């Protein structure tokens, strides 16, 4: 199940949201150090972010913009600020949805599930998989499996592995992978791809498969 990061400075509301999400079997992380929102995002690699606007230190608009510099992860603003300008600002900053406090928790859960389905192609129907050299990629829930061990993947790690497996045996250039993953991302640099490739490799190696993704110097990457 997806990991959700909750960025809410009101402890009672944060705890309520986290408890409800856990009932729905989501993995949940709640930020408590509001100087480290961006660091927590990078460390936790959530599949969705719930983000308040009124926060200590920097507001939610700032953190949304920082996250959008490196990721297209779904972001839902939750806020007591409910003017049209607030909603327009949120969408212009890259948010995917806006929920006004006070809200019905069932409505929030429904929005989360709908956004996850749209973003990651989650489905309750027949599972589609890609299998190669001991690794199986579950296309419907963005996880990989090696010898019965499930590997949780971030959105970008999943898309990288999916593209490499669909083109297994072919060398994919760094430029092609960047275009495929972040074709509308203005702030991505070459190092971002390296970081995601290294994280993906590490997760696969920890599951017992070494050398699964090969680097072809000056050419790109290949799953042989």
Overview features:
224 residues, elongated
Task: Report what the structure shows.
With 224 residues, the protein is of the alpha/beta class. It contains eight helices and eleven strands. The protein has helices spanning 11-23, 37-44, 60-68, 84-93, 105-120, 155-166, 174-181, 190-206; strands at residues 3-7, 27-30, 48-52, 75-79, 97-100, 129-132, 135-138, 143-146, 149-152, 214-216, 220-222. A five-stranded parallel β-sheet has the order 2-1-3-4-5, sandwiched between helices. Helix 6 packs across helix 8. It is elongated, with a radius of gyration of 18 Å.
Overall 3D form: elongated
Report the biggest beta sheet as strand number plus sense, adding barrel if it closes: 5 strands, parallel
**Overall mean pLDDT score?**
85
Indicate the radius of gyration in whole angstroms: 18 Å
**Separation of termini?**
30 Å
Instruction: Give the uncertain stretches in residue-range form.
Output: 122-127, 183-187
Strand order of the largest sheet: 2-1-3-4-5
Number of helices: 8
Order of helices and strands: EHEHEHEHEHEEEEHHHEE
**Structural class, judged by helices and strands?**
alpha/beta
State the total count of DSSP E strands: 11
What percent strand? 15-25%
The helix content, as a percent range, equals 40-55%
